[in-house]
Amino acid sequence: xxxxxxNLSFETTEEQLRQxxxxxxxxxxxxxIVDKYSGKSRGFAFVEMSEKDEAxxxxxxxxxxxxxxxxxNVNEAKSRAQSSNHSSGNGSRRPY
Length: 96
Fold this sequence. Notes:
The protein is α+β, with helices and mostly antiparallel strands and 96 residues long.
């Protein structure tokens, strides 16, 4: 299961993030999203856990908890298609 972590401290490392989630189970991957130009953290990350029950426990256990001085916002990640608010191209725009 892919997990979204928001409100992440800019100083948090992928290793620190991985360690926090490994308390709940096996972490397949941990990726802090960085700005492509500056290389600095954008303040959010994704963690992949192989077992759904472990991921659910991690979400419950870490949401609202503090890591490096910031209260984490932890939820199941949504695919880009689910989270997109863009028009589906069904003619909803007015013609000019």
